[in-house]
Amino acid sequence: MSDNKMLFEYLLRLGDNSLILGQRLAEWCGKSPVLEEELALMNVGLDLIGQARLFLSYAGEVEDAGRDEDTLAFHRDAQEWRNLLLVEQPNGDFAKTMARQLFIDCFQYVQFEGLLHSTDKTVSEIAAKSLKEITYHRRHSRDWVIRLGDGTEESHQKMQTAIEELWGFVPEMFDMDNVDNAMLAAGIGVDVAALKDRWDTMINDILAEATLTRPEDTWSVRGSRVGKHSEHLGFLLAEMQFLPRAYPDAKW
Amino acid sequence: MQAQSPSFDKESVRKILEMVKDPEIPVLSIEDMGIVRDVEVGDEDVQIYITPTYSGCPAMDMIATEIETVLALHGYKKITVKTVLSPAWSSDFISERGRKNLEEYGIAPPSGNSKGAMLGIDPVSCPQCKSKNTSVVSEFGSTACKALYKCNDCLEPFDYFKCV
Fold it and tell me: What is the tens place of the pLDDT at every residue in A170-184?
């Protein structure tokens, strides 16, 4: 792979994480438990979609093949997506949405903090912008995980179940493959494997405060870096991409 | 409207930009909001550099269009609006006048500065009765830049401009 192709792949990973999670959160529109949470989930989703636009626009420039942010968002099939398996998992109940959000918020927090020092000016600027938003997101998901975990017997049970159901998607976040290593060597990317300890500390503190039990590492799934996704992504894309594919030149 | 002949100096352009308001908070000009980061003026062209408040803020496209429109109405022809990301926008950029306008409009302005906000040390004042006895209802509000609060003294709910 050429250097440019490596950077393109890396940018897709960053942008796709934000876009797919943003789309998932948008699915809560009209059916959140309370109005305030509906606003919160839509606001978080909006930030994520904004981040995705910045990364995918830049990816399009780097690729230099005439694909812009919209083409990348609406005209790629499931195997061409590079988002983590975690973010494409269905919303489930509110506890599961918050568990997924906490895992990714803490991950993006340490990842983007590292990207602040990227030698690629655009990457470091997007990271600086996004980190402010992510800090705010993390405060929100943390509050809910603690409130539900340390809440009623039922909310505690639902939060514990949610964490266990998503635990096996955690290891993939901290994998390093040839693209990650090349980006690290170029000073553009971060060593996510080295960030696992910080993520663990953050999560352990929150779980302890929430009176939740950290699950055992008994299972894990991976594959997103090479485009192997769970079946859920296809359904998400079918909904997200329908309009621009059915009406190719549709304009607002 | 008859287009005047435009003045190619920064001050005149900045003055005109004060006419562009945030579409969701009409008492706040983009200048007071700290969205305009720089203005470059050539012999017959102007470049306006703006920065988004939040990555996904849907008002940015509209703001860019309004900048072009208002400058065109003042006779400028070659107008470029560019988005810059660095330094990342902070509510610390909001001017004193902007803060005063927000409060009069019923939105509590950011309390303290963005560094203190992370520690939660500055109490939020109710824009109606000025009481500091307020509590957060939701960290997120009607737009990306606001949170929802209520006053425990006068019991009014109110928007708080997030301090980030």
Answer: 999 999 999 999 999
Nearest chain A residue to B51 by CA distance is: A129
Given CB atoms, is A128 within the 8 Å cutoff of chain B? yes
CB-CB under 8 Å, B56 with A136:
no
Put simply, whether A50 touches B (Cβ < 8 Å) is yes
Task: Tally the residues of chain B.
Answer: 164
Cα B53 to Cα A79, B81, B94: the distances in Å are 34, 16, 11
CATH number, position A11: 1.20.1260.10
Phi, psi of B71 (to 5 degrees): -70, -35
Question: What is the number of alpha carbons within 13 Å of residue A161 lying toward its C-beta?
Answer: 11
d(C-alpha B67, C-alpha B59), whole Å: 12
* Domain tally, chain A: 1
Q: Within a domain: residue A163?
A: yes
Are A56 and A71 in contact, with CB atoms under 8 Å apart? no
CB atoms within 10 A of CB B49: 15
Q: Is residue A229 part of a domain?
A: yes
Query: Does residue A252 form part of some domain?
Result: no
Q: What does the DSSP assignment read for B63-102? A: HHHHHHHHHHHTT--EEEEEE--SSPP-GGGS-HHHHHHH
What pTM was computed for the model?
A: 0.93
Judge whether A35 lies within some domain.
Answer: yes
- Residue A217, min C-alpha distance to chain B (Å): 33
pLDDT digits (tens, 9 = 90+) for B95-144: 999 999 999 999 999 998 888 776 666 899 999 999 999 999 999 998 88
Contact status, residue A51 vs residue A18, Cβ threshold 8 Å: yes
ipTM: 0.86
What digits encode the pLDDT tens for the residues A18-70?
999 999 999 999 999 999 999 999 999 999 999 999 999 999 999 999 999 99
**Cβ within 8 Å, pair A40-B138:** yes
Range of the domain at A219: 3-246
Amino acid code (one letter) for B58: P
Q: Which of B122, B110, B97 is nearest to B162 (CA)?
A: B110
